[in-house]
Structure formats: C-alpha cells, structure tokens
Here is the input.
Amino acid sequence: MRNKCQSDKIKNFVLRQALTSDSADILEWRNDRDSRSASIDQKKISQSDHERWFCQVLKGGEKLCFIGENTDGKIGIVRFEAVGKKVWEVSINLNPKFRHLGWGEFLLGEAGRYFLNMDSSPRILRATVKDENFASRRIFEKCGYIFDRKSGRNLFFQYVGKRG
Ligand SMILES: CC(C)(COP(=O)(O)OP(=O)(O)OC[C@H]1O[C@@H](n2cnc3c(N)ncnc32)[C@H](O)[C@@H]1OP(=O)(O)O)[C@@H](O)C(=O)NCCC(=O)NCCS
Here is the structure.
C-alpha cells in the first residue's frame, strides 16, 4: 500500500487552495472519530460553526487551507492559521480513505513548501500534536519540524520557514 502512494504521488498529485465544493468533505473528515480524538478540541463540529470558519478560509488572508488530490480523490487538507506576527499554526487531516499509506508526510511537505513560497516574508510554522499521536509526530519530524516543548499531553513543534 505504501508503494502505491510512492508511485502515484508524483504522477497524479495536485495541491490547490480549498474551494466551496470542498466544504462538506472537510467537515466530514474533521468529525471522523480518529480525527476528533487527535484534535485538541474533541467535540463534534456543527455545520453552522464549520460554515462560519470556512467562510473565513474562502476569503483568504489569515486562514488558508490547501487540498491535495489525485485521480483517486481528495487526499486531505493542510491548514495554516495566523496566530501571531509571522507565526502560523499548521494542521493536517487526511481523508480517512488515504490514512496510513504514507500520504501524510508527502502532503504536509508539499503544502509547507507551497505556503512558504507564497510570499517573501519570513514565516514560522508551529504545530501542536498530542503525545500519543505517533503518526503525526513522525510526519512533522520528517518534514523538518523541530520539537520545541511539551505541555500536558501536547507536544509543540516549530519550523522556522526557509523558502525554496
Ligand atoms: C496523522 C496523519 C496526518 C498521519 O498521516 P498518515 O499518512 O496516515 O501516516 P502513516 O500512518 O502513514 O504514518 C506516518 C509515519 O508514522 C509512523 N507511525 C504510525 N503509527 C505509529 C505508531 N503507533 N508508533 C510509531 N510510529 C508510527 C509510520 O510508521 C510512518 O513512519 P515512516 O514513514 O517512517 O514509515 C493521518 O493519519 C491523519 O490525518 N489522522 C487523523 C487526523 C490527525 O491525527 N491529524 C494530526 C493532528 S496533529
């Protein structure tokens, strides 16, 4: 299965900004059981809360979302949300159908490079990962994020953005 990701990812992969037509998929993935248990806020997101948030995403600016897809469908989403001057919180959520196949590392890497190259201002990327979320910890580390500190069950990673 991992080999499938390896061979298809380069051939068919496209990264693009999220569109209105992605809204229902993003909410469904977010409310998936594994995704909720990996989230800091584990409650189910209501349609109305999601729509309010997604409206801001579509306007761009301080909340940006990228969708990775290939000919088999939408692979997942990477979100970047401004949390301070130059600092952006990054998170990733795969379509459940694409989990555990190696796509997480690839999508996170592609989205990070794209985001850092969007403009020339220096950016620091920050990620918060639950200590028991080994797959997520691993992909952030493999994409160059450095462990910063631990607080309770949360591990904080940082990537001081280099473009290119
Ligand atoms: C977390 C997520 C992004 C990981 O992406 P993925 O492509 O499914 O990751 P994989 O299962 O292929 O695992 C990635 C790596 O972690 C390793 N890993 C997975 N589970 C592990 C475990 N329990 N212990 C140790 N390592 C583990 C894998 O071996 C792999 O390492 P490798 O590339 O060196 O072989 C994805 O599963 C997802 O979207 N989950 C739900 C939402 C979520 O948790 N988001 C992150 C919030 S911080």
